[in-house]
Each structure stands twice: as C-alpha cells, then as structure tokens.
C-alpha cells in the first residue's frame, strides 16, 4: 500500500546543467516556502518524519533551502539527503558561504551528488565541492554518489576512478558494488575506530529510465520489480506546489498527482487512497495492470524492463482508464 514516510521538496525546477537524460520540466518555478513549512508541521502526525531536497538544483536557492532546513530542525524531523550536481557554484568563496549556511541551519543528512556520463561535470570542480563539504561538515561520511547507467553499472567506472584519484581516494569495486575510500578504510583495524574521519563515499547505481516518448520495447521479458514500495513511496513536492505519490520519472504525470501544498496532509493522503492508479502501483502491481490491459485487447509494441518508463507510458496515454479500478481474478497477475 502507499504509505509515505518521507517528503521530498523540489525547491526549483531550474538547473545550471542541461543533461540529456533529465525529464524535469523547466518553467522557472520556485517553491512557496511558507506553504512548505505549514505542510511540514502536519507531517509528523502522519508518521512522515524524513525530509529530502531535490530539484532542479536546490543549491541555486540557498536562502530558501536554509530556511526549510532550519524549520525541519525546529520541528524535530529527520533529514534524508540533498540531491545536487555539485558544480553549481561560481567561486570557492560562494561555495563555502552557501554550504556553511546549510550546515549552520542544522542540516545533518547526506549530500548526494548525481555523477555519471550524462552530467559530465568538471571533476576538478566536483573535487572542490566534496572537499569543501567534508571540511565544513567535519565528517568524511557526509557525501554519497548516484550514478545513472544505460546497460552496465561499470559504464561510469573510469569517471569514478578519476574522481577518486582527485580526492586522494581509491575506488573499490567489490563493495556494494562500488565505493570510494582512503587507505584508512582499507585497514580493518583502523576502520573500527574511525568515526567520520576516514573518506567513505558509497555509490548507488541507477538504471536509466526513459520517458514515454523514448521508451524502447525491445527487451526479451517484462520488468519484475512492479511494486513501487521502495524509493517511489514518498510525497514528492514539485516546485509549483503540486504533490506526486512518486519520485520517479513519471511524477509529473496527472495520475500520480494527489494534491498541492495548499491542501492538508490528511487531504493529500485521502486522495492517495482514492486514487485508482496508485492501487495498481502500490497494491496489485504494474505487472498486473499490464496483463489487465492485454486482456482488454491492448497490444504493446514489445516488452520492457523499464518500470518507470512503463509507468510514464501508461500515465501519458491514460491507459489505466481502459481497465478502471483493480479487480482481477486470483492468480491472474502472472508474476
């Protein structure tokens, strides 16, 4: 079932980069901070206790970001991560001032850098960003990386090795599956007594999802991960104030929008329980929806393992309206 425990705020849809894989609409929207704070005040009552920040590039609005961070701290919620490309700054002085502002406001989560062949950041600038965050946070476990790949996580290996070298680290490829560490981490005896002092950057690999317009249908089998009970189970607040029940590539599509910041948290969650499409996503599975569509006579162009792309395709083409609410016979989900 859809039961969010986190709210993610996209402070703006503006960004200093124009990555080929990005599907975020660019309308120069800016989040209403007062509405966001009021919404946060209600979250804890509904066990939504973790807060993250995304975009666009959230560090382009440092004052608004710091204000929300301070409010999260004041009402005693927990931080998840700030998503960033890490190269938004113009000077090192600007970088230090803005990062200090965020930590002075009370941030103690992680800063997650999107780094891969699509973002194409300057490694030297990224190294400056990482070293600045480590210095101000006084913790070398304050950074993580998220790497998008097309077919194989190792596509970004050379980039990661160059980045590791630039911050005097070593890329380990036999870990979860990759991480950047220093020699202290390689010494098991020393590792047991390190508390934020040794370099440690975990790396999450994320397979690229395509929009409905570019989705390929040439896989030999369908996706198997068809329940959005993992990273999709959040309230994602867009910069324009609309709230989606998803943080994936389809989260700007109407079937996934369940309210706005002007609504109460209670009203937004009530909307989610009445949302037919969310019942398919979080209770019965998108695989079951696909089979129900085929039973209605709908023919897909082929098969895909891309669950987010499939979701975007269904939403854009309003296919869920062909089958209505979930109501299939036992054993027909086929998964």
Query: Per CATH, which architecture of the domain at 6-208?
Result: Alpha-Beta Barrel
From the spread of the alpha carbons, the general shape counts as: globular
Major β-sheet annotation: 11 strands, mixed
Total number of β-strand segments?
11
CATH topology of the domain at 6-208: TIM Barrel
Report mean pLDDT, rounded to a whole number: 90
State the secondary-structure class.
alpha/beta
Percent in helix? 25-40%
Could you characterize the architecture of this molecule?
The chain has helices at 33-43, 62-74, 92-104, 123-137, 157-166, 183-186, 188-191, 265-274, 276-284, 286-295, 307-316, and strands at residues 6-10, 50-54, 78-84, 110-114, 143-149, 170-172, 178-181, 200-207, 235-237, 242-244, 257-260. It has 335 residues and is α/β, with parallel strands linked by helices. It has a domain at 6-208: TIM Barrel. Helix 2 packs parallel to helix 3 (92-104), helix 3 (92-104) runs parallel beside helix 4 (123-137) and helix 9 (276-284) crosses helix 10 (286-295). The protein is globular and about 60 Å long. The two termini are 18 Å apart. Mean pLDDT is 90; it is low at 328-335.
